[in-house]
User: Fold these one by one.
Assistant:
Number 1:
Amino acid sequence: MKNLNAKIASIPMIFTALVIFVGCTAWTIYHSFTNSRLLPNNNWVGFDQYERLWDTKRWIVSVGNLAIYGVCSLVISVIIGFVLAALLDRKIRFEGVFRSIFLFPFALSFIVTGLVWQWILNPEFGVQKVLQSLGWENVTFDPLYNPDLVIYGILIAGIWQGSGLIMCVMLAGLRGIDGDIWKATRVDGIKTWKTYIFVIIPMMKPVFVTALVLIASGIIKVYDLVLAQTSGGPGIASEVPAKYVYDKMFNAQNLGQGFAASTMMLVSVAIVLIPWAYLQFGGKKND
């Protein structure tokens, strides 16, 4: 049989995907319809867990925070990543040094990043203290202590860590553009910024899709930053779905509620992946 060795070698991977991923996912969804507490059980309660979930203020706040964090992170990370990549693509001096500096935050864990930005945004010795010591005594900059702004303080840390990776993705896409295209636009007298907007960016559609999927996958499971910076506070102002799931399953010992919340997160992932899969494969097939 053709490629028999390759097919045999792929069996462990297929088995792992079916049993661990698909099997555990189905097990989680099933038990989200039960009243499981400390241990899983088969006491079916229908959609009670989901009704209770969407009647909980903490979950509503979590979803709202995720929406704000997600939209802002998608837009700002892509813009910053593309701008940095475009600047590096101009063949500047010490490009390797700048690329390493911009990418360095991505090498840090989210816990480390969260703690660093917790210190930076601390009003007692962070940015606010520095500005006040320079003469701006009335300046207030304490987003992590303001319930209306705390999610934006977490957003700053997330963008700082993730923009470097998006820059690398964008830079790889820019380096794949044929140099003759740039020469043609210069001959036609097209300004650089118009070339980027009307020529280069449309050609980089697959790169942008990949970047958006990378960002979205990190957004949905954001947890470490919140835990390190605020632990969900002040109050419940910075709660996110991943933290809600963890707290329900391990602290409140309410597996059914945690499974319901994690299933809703799975639905969110599907909402991201299905359009991406269509754009990546469906569009090519139609072409």
Number 2:
Amino acid sequence: MATKRMTPGFSDQVMSLVKSLRSNSPDCVAAGVVDMSTGMLLSYETVDNHPPEVLDLLAGATLDLFQGRTVVMIEDIFKERRGVADDTHFFQEILVNSENLTHLFVRMNEQQDVVAVIVCRKSVNVGMLLAQARRVVREHSL
């Protein structure tokens, strides 16, 4: 069965999502979309030039955050205890603050293995960032 990522227009949808995240997220310096099933950064926009190695590592870091061995173990324990039998993931959003930046990782609603990444200045209003990111992700179902 073909996945939605193989359908015509998916690339355009991803690029549209990235542009919308970049323009609608407050204090945004970069946005991108990661496909965790392939480990690829599908698209990104940034105000700075970054070495290709850093961009390659972003996809791997996103995979580790959402589907690292320990995270999967925690999710499996919760599913077992709650009697959940589907493949839904518990961790939907992850916020990471570094020294100068705030990084928000948000799973897409329809395609749980696709994650939107938004990077903002650390001075960002986190509540506004979450509200805007959730709105944009909801409007761009992939």
Number 3:
Amino acid sequence: MAKPRQTIVSLEDTPYYHCCSRVVRKAFLCGIDNSTGENFEHRREWVDSRILELATIFAIDICAYAFFVMKRK
């Protein structure tokens, strides 16, 4: 059974938490999509600035983040 986050997260014990998000398989985020040939590299800068903007809105600190581009065969 699911538990509310307030019972799981303890900022006194651990102030850092790892959050992970995945993109839907066919929704290409960055780089060149091999199936269509379209280049979506322009999105990388937008995502970067959006992450930092949302951190100020939600009053959280971002310690690190990474973009992973998976190549499809």
